[in-house]
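Hi R.,

As promised on Friday, here is the backbone we talked about, encoded as structure tokens. Could you run it through your design pipeline when you get a chance and send me back a sequence?
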């Protein structure tokens, strides 16, 4: 079948393969969103009189069939079709003839691609927020179980001050709650419809872009049609920026767990089922998944740099360079979601060696506390107290680490983790997320109702 753009010449086979790139594979994941966008577009075309009610019904029936095929995993794209948009349109044309050819009225593959990517990202961002909040819950639960387990706090990896397992775990719980907030802000930027911008300059028909945006559950359209296309790459970069920030937290947690679980430290015990072995050393139980989280943090950051470099200096309007922003965005979201899931599983099953945590305390860990005691008890200026303790470190005595951590009662300290406050914040995010998931499910049901 001739390509949508084809007129009088055939494309060189090598060039065809090169320009199709990854789209033939990647676009299979976009098929359901391309179909939903086509249903909304068809309804709008019927509203303005381009399609009759009968034609709309025929198109919608066929689109729902294609949607069902995507759900069964039976949708595929040939290389000569180049992308999902052509594949869907050809199926419609094969089934409906000239009626199928009407579906592309007033749109371009450019705004279709932008729409599909936003709908895909919207769904994946919600999925990621769910998993982030589930990890936050696991961290807070872990903190609650070990709130009174002392653990040496470190700076520069060296012994610093008394801390607790609860403080460590709740730090990552709060990080995940803030990451859910970051994803919420990213989601709002993504949740705007580019449909109807066509090839960047609109069309000479009285289309209703607000109508299609509402049908698809968007907050609103991207208003300026040129900007709607200029956001391609920018939207992907915003998504990957959030993913890169989340991955940096996951990498830090992974490094901590690896360090705290080495035999010489022995604070944490990793479940054996999460630890691959060695092909030569029978005794090995390696923290491989955590090491991969760290490694893939760099990959996600690399995806962000790739997209930023692609869009750097592009002229306004669509450019084929933007085709290359889709893959990094999709891979970045998938990698981040996988890594969050790994951390959630590990936090669910990891154990704490209370004895090893407690016996790690030595007198110098209490040095800062002693300086503060002199300030409070004797009115000594802090700098003088600091010097006095520093010159007499050999005279410091050990203290009860549990008593020490529980005595620190200000907000967020070891004796006041404020887990209830953090739990409330997590529940508020979960409530908003649940409502949005239910809203979009209703949007899908309304779109596909025959």
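Update: got your reply. Pasting your designed sequence below so it's all in one thread:
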């Amino acid at each position: 079948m001739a390509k949508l753009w084809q007129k009088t010449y055939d494309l060189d086979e090598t060039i065809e393969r090169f320009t199709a790139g990854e789209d033939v594979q990647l676009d299979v994941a976009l098929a359901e969103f391309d179909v939903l966008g086509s249903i909304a577009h068809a309804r709008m075309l019927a509203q303005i009189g381009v399609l009759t009610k009968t034609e709309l019904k025929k198109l919608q029936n066929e689109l729902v069939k294609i949607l069902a095929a995507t759900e069964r995993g039976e949708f595929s794209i040939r290389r000569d079709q180049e992308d999902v948009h052509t594949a869907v349109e050809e199926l419609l044309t094969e089934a409906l003839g000239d009626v199928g050819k009407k579906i592309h009225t007033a749109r371009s593959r450019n705004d279709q691609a932008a729409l599909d990517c936003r709908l895909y990202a919207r769904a994946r961002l919600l999925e990621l927020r769910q998993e982030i909040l589930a990890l936050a819950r696991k961290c807070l639960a872990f903190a609650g179980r070990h709130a009174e387990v002392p653990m040496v706090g470190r700076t520069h990896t060296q012994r610093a001050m008394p801390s607790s397992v609860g403080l460590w775990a709740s730090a990552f719980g709060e990080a995940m709650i803030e990451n859910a907030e970051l994803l919420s802000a990213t989601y709002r930027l993504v949740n705007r419809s580019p449909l109807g911008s066509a090839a960047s300059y609109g069309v000479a028909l009285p289309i209703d872009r607000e109508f299609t945006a509402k049908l698809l559950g968007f907050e609103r359209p991207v208003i300026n049609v040129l900007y709607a296309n200029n956001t391609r790459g920018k939207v992907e970069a915003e998504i990957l920026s959030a993913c890169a920030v989340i991955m940096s937290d996951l990498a830090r947690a992974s490094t901590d767990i690896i360090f705290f679980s080495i035999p010489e430290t022995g604070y944490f015990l990793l479940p054996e089922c999460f630890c691959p072995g060695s092909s030569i050393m029978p005794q090995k139980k390696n923290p491989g998944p955590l090491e991969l989280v760290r490694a893939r943090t760099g990959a996600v950051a690399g995806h962000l740099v790739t997209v930023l470099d692609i869009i750097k200096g592009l002229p306004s309007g669509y450019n084929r360079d933007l085709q290359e922003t889709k893959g990094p965005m999709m891979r970045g979201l998938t990698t981040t979601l996988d890594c969050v899931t790994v951390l959630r599983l590990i936090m669910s099953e990891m154990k704490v060696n209370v004895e090893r945590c407690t016996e790690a305390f030595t007198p110098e860990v209490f040095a800062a506390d002693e300086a503060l005691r002199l300030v409070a008890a004797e009115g000594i200026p802090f700098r003088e107290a600091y010097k006095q303790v520093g010159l007499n470190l050999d005279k410091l005595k050990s203290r009860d680490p549990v008593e020490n951590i529980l005595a620190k009662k200000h907000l967020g300290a070891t004796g006041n983790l404020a887990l209830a406050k953090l739990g409330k914040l997590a529940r508020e995010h979960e409530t908003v997320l649940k409502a949005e998931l239910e809203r979009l499910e209703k949007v899908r049901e309304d779109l596909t109702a025959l």
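One thing I noticed while checking it: The mean pLDDT is 95.

Thanks again,
M.
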